[in-house]
Design goal:
metal-binding; Dipeptide epimerase; eight-stranded parallel sheet; Enolase-like, domain 1; four-stranded antiparallel sheet; single chain; TIM Barrel; Enolase-like_C_sf; 12 helices; globular; alpha/beta; 2 domains
Length: about 350
C-alpha cells in the first residue's frame, strides 16, 4: 500500500507483515506466536528510508491505526526538505497522537537524513571506535525443561530470563545448571514489594545483574519502598514510556529501559538517554518482537547506553528485512550510509 503524491518529493509505502515466532513467546501477562508489524518505507527523491512499528493489544495499537495515524502526518512530511528529524518530532507526535506511528516515521527520516550527510546512521551521534554493548538473548516463560532446552540450543554471553510465576527462583536455579553466564530478569510487573526484596538477594547470589519492572507500572509507592532495599538494581520498563516519565522514574528506579516504538523513535530516545544520564540513571535500549528494521535502528543507537536488548529479530522465522547481521553475538553493520536497511525481495 502506498500514498500517491505527485506534488511532493515524499512518498509513503506501507509493508504489513505477520512476523512468526520460532517458538511461542510467553511473559507474565501475555503469550503469542505471531507479531503483526508495519514497515514504513519513505522515498525522498532518490533516497529511501525505513522505519517500523509493531502492533500490540497491550497498548491498543493495530496495523490499521498505525497506518491511519501516519497518514495524518503526510501534509507535514510533504514540506520536509531534509532537515534534522528531531526538529520535526514534536509536531509529528502532536499530529499523530501515536508514539508507534511516530516511531516509524522518525526512524525512516533519520535513515534518509544520515544518507544525505553521507554517513552511517550511528556516526551522527557516536564515535566510530566506541564498542557496542552486547545484547542479551531472551528466554520466555515456559516449563523449566523447555527453558533449559532453549538456553542450551542458543549459546549466548548474556540472557534475559522472563519471570512472573510462583516458582521464579526455582527457574533461575535450574537454568544455572546449564549456564554460568550473566542473567538479567524481567518480572513484567508480576511481583509484590516483599517478593522483590526477598528475590533480589537470592538472585544476586545466582549471578543476576538486574531486575526489570518487578511491580505494576503505576505502583510508585511500592517502588519508593524498594529504593535502597534491593540487592540488585531495578530497571524501569512499563513505567518509563516517554521522556516525561524519567522525571518520576529517577526518584525510585536505578535505570530505565527505553524502547523506540513506545517512546516515538530515535528523536525521543536521544532525548531520554540524555535526560537519564543527567540523573545518573543506568540506560538501556530495549526492543519489541521486531524485524531487522526496528532492531537495526536500535543497534545504531546502542553505543550511547549501558545495556541493550535487541534480540527481537532473532526470535522470528520470517524476517522480511536485511539490516545488521550477527557474527556470533557481535553486531555487524552494512557498509552503507544511513541505516543500511533493505527489504528482501
Amino acid at each position: 500500500m502506498k500514498t500517491d503524491n505527485t506534488k511532493s518529493p515524499i512518498e509513503l509505502i506501507y509493508h504489513l507483515y505477520d512476523l512468526k515466532l520460532k517458538e511461542t513467546f510467553k511473559i507474565a501477562h501475555d503469550e503469542r506466536t505471531v507479531q503483526p508489524t508495519v514497515i514504513l518505507e519513505i522515498r525522498y527523491h532518490q533516497y529511501i528510508g525505513f522505519g517500523e512499528a509493531v502492533a500490540t493489544k497491550y497498548y491498543q495499537v493495530s496495523q490499521t491505526s498505525i497506518c491511519n495515524n501516519i497518514e495524518k502526518a503526510l501534509p507535514l512530511l510533504q514540506n520536509w526538505r531534509g532537515e534534522k528529524p528531531d526538529l520535526l518530532f514534536d509536531q509529528l507526535l502532536s499530529i499523530t497522537q501515536d508514539t508507534f506511528a511516530t516511531c516509524a516515521i522518525d526512524q525512516a527520516l533519520w535513515d534518509i537524513y544520515a544518507q544525505l550527510q553521507n554517513k552511517p546512521l550511528y556516526q551522527l551521534w557516536s564515535d566510530v571506535n566506541t564498542a557496542l554493548p552486547i545484547s542479551n538473548y531472551t528466554i520466555g516463560l515456559d516449563s523449566i525443561p523447555t527453558m533449559k532446552r532453549k538456553l542450551e540450543e542458543f549459546p549466548w554471553p548474556i540472557y534475559k530470563i522472563k519471570l512472573g510465576t510462583e516458582h521464579d527462583l526455582q527457574i533461575i536455579s535450574a537454568l544455572r545448571e546449564v549456564s554460568d553466564v550473566p542473567f538479567r530478569v524481567d518480572a513484567n510487573q508480576a511481583w509484590s514489594v516483599q517478593e522483590t526484596i526477598d528475590n533480589s538477594s537470592l538472585l544476586k547470589k545466582l549471578g543476576v545483574e538486574f531486575i526489570e519492572q518487578p511491580l505494576g507500572k503505576k505502583n510508585w509507592k511500592g517502588m519508593k519502598t524498594l529504593k535502597g532495599k534491593c540487592a540488585l538494581p531495578i530497571i524501569a520498563d512499563e513505567s518509563c514510556i516517554r521522556e516525561q516519565d524519567i522525571d518520576q522514574c529517577m526518584t525510585v528506579f536505578d535505570g530505565v529501559n527505553i524502547k523506540l516504538t513506545k517512546c516515538g523513535g530515535i528523536s525521543a530516545a536521544l532525548r531520554m538517554i540524555k535526560k537519564a544520564k543527567q540523573y545518573s540513571l543506568l540506560t538501556m535500549l530495549g526492543c519489541m518482537t521486531e524485524s531487522s528494521v526496528g532492531i537495526t535502528h536500535i543497534a545504531h543507537l546502542c553505543k550511547l547506553v549501558d545495556f541493550v536488548d535487541m534480540d527481537g529479530a532473532l526470535l522470528i522465522s520470517n524476517d522480511p528485512a536485511i539490516g545488521i547481521s550477527w557474527d556470533g553475538y557481535k553486531v555487524r553493520f552494512q557498509n552503507k550510509n544511513g541505516s543500511g536497511i533493505s527489504l528482501k525481495s
